[in-house]
Structure formats: C-alpha cells, structure tokens
Amino acid sequence: MPELPEVEVSRLGIIPYVEGQTVTDITIRQPKLRWPIPDTLQQLKGQVIRRVTRRAKYLLLETDVGTAIVHLGMSGSLRVLPLSQPPEKHDHVDVILSNGRLIRYHDPRRFGAWLWQEGETPHAVLGKLGPEPLTDAFDPEYLLAKAKGKKMVMKSFIMDNAVVVGVGNIYANESLFCAGIHPKRPAGSLSLAEATRLVDEIKTVLAAAITQGGTTLKDFTQVDGKAGYFAQELRVYGKSGQPCPVCGSALERIIIGQRATVFCPQCQPL
Ligand SMILES: [Zn+2]
C-alpha cells in the first residue's frame, strides 16, 4: 500500500511534467473507485495545473478554479506517458496535458480516489487532519499536549490522522522501536523526553524513506514498471521472531487495531 513517502515521491516524480501544463481533456474509463468520480472533475479541463502539492496521502493538482484531489488507495499509482501509449487493464483515468503527455492513473484494487474541490474551501476529506509530520508544526510540545490524559495505546495514537497525518503501520512500528516506546503504552504516559525522541524518529524514518524512494524508483515516465512503490530498509516491521537489531532479543508480534505490530520486549518495555 502506498504510504506517505510513496505519495511524496510520486509528487516529486510528476511535478516536472505537470506543473504549468494545461489540461486539454480527461478520460475516465472506470469511474467506480473508492467513491464514484464526480462529474465536477471535468472542471479540470481547460485549466492550468499551477502546483502539485500534497496533504497527508492526498495529491492535489491545484488550478485557478479548484483542485483535483487524488488518493492512491491500496494499489494506485501515477505515471506520465506519451499520448500515444495505449491504456492497459486497470488504467482508469488519464489527464491529458498540453505538452503531449498524459497523467495515467492505474489502480487494480480501485480503492483510490479522484475528487474535485471547488475553489479554496478544503474538501471534506481534507477537513479534520492533524499537522504534516515533516513540518515544524509537528513538535514534541504539540504531541505531548495531544497525548495528555489519553488512554489510547501509543501505536494507535500516532497512526490517528487527527493527531498527525501520514504515519502508517510500517512507520509507526519503526519509529516506536527507534524511540524505545512499547506500542501498547497509554498515550497519556508519554514524557516530554519520550515525545521529543518519538517526534524526531518519526521525521527521520519518513524523510529517509522519501530519500530512498527518490533514489531507487524508476523514472515516472517509464512505460513499464510499477511507478510509485519502492523497497525500504526496515528494522522491525515484518521481522517478528528475528533478533532485535539493537539487543538481539527475539522480536515479538502482536495485533493492535487489526494491524501487525512488531516490537522488541527488551528495548521497548511496557
Ligand atoms: Zn532490542
């Protein structure tokens, strides 16, 4: 599943071909995604894509009249291809650009989304989101204030989009391990020192993934290949039963919020 780093790398990958281009047409082959693609998306036609930005895991194609909102869901990806490139199975949306290229959206599981935001007022899906993890707004004092008095377990807490966006399952596992915090600790038990370390680790693990993705991904204009996903070096995620990379104890696996959770019982005491 594309996580925040994949979405950010996708953004950086398509920007050079997309920003400043006029949308000459939109082809929708399959409108039934997570939500039906609204007819209002056609308003993108004739508009210049001024900027490609990101909020949480949503990519935003900003124009003077509104913004196309793209979510990659479970299996979505974007590529920039020549107009002559024939569509293949699961290529559901093409945004055709004035430079003779198109943005092609591929999504076998169809759990992604294409939405339209009129004007400047944020679309409902962007309404109740916490700060971006890689901005200064996400700092230890903020996290500590949010955690105060909460019984919610730490892993669910940092994966809550209202607390901070973009900390998916992989990054929650990795950052809690690196910060030495048990995933089942109540959020309210967090100290300022721990919040400081955790904020630092979340930023580090996400930034490292974006850097790694940017260097290992194939070009977003390649016709073949799975643009948008990349392998990462992980310390604990997917490694239950293996020795902890710090102390050598066997890593344990539990389920929190229906998601696999791997931790070191020595380095992350409850
Ligand atoms: Zn350990």
Please tell me about this protein's structure.
The protein is an alpha+beta fold and 270 residues long. It has two domains: 123 residues, N-terminal domain of MutM-like DNA repair proteins; 124 residues, Helicase, Ruva Protein, domain 3 (Orthogonal Bundle). It is 24% helix and 21% strand. The chain has a four-stranded antiparallel beta sheet, with helices on one face. A four-stranded antiparallel beta sheet has the order 2-3-4-8, covered by helices on one side. A two-stranded antiparallel ribbon has the order 9-10. The radius of gyration is 20 Å and the shape is elongated. The mean pLDDT is 94. Bound molecules: zinc ion. The site of zinc ion (ZN) has 7 residues, from loops.
Write the layout of secondary structure elements.
Elements: H1 4-18, E1 23-28, E2 51-55, E3 58-62, E4 66-71, E5 77-82, E6 91-97, E7 101-106, E8 113-118, H2 140-147, H3 154-158, H4 169-179, H5 192-216, E9 252-256, E10 259-263
Antiparallel strand pairs: 1-6, 2-3, 3-4, 4-8, 5-7, 6-7, 9-10
This protein binds zinc ion.
Kindly summarize this structure in a few lines:
This protein is α+β, with helices and mostly antiparallel strands and 270 residues long.
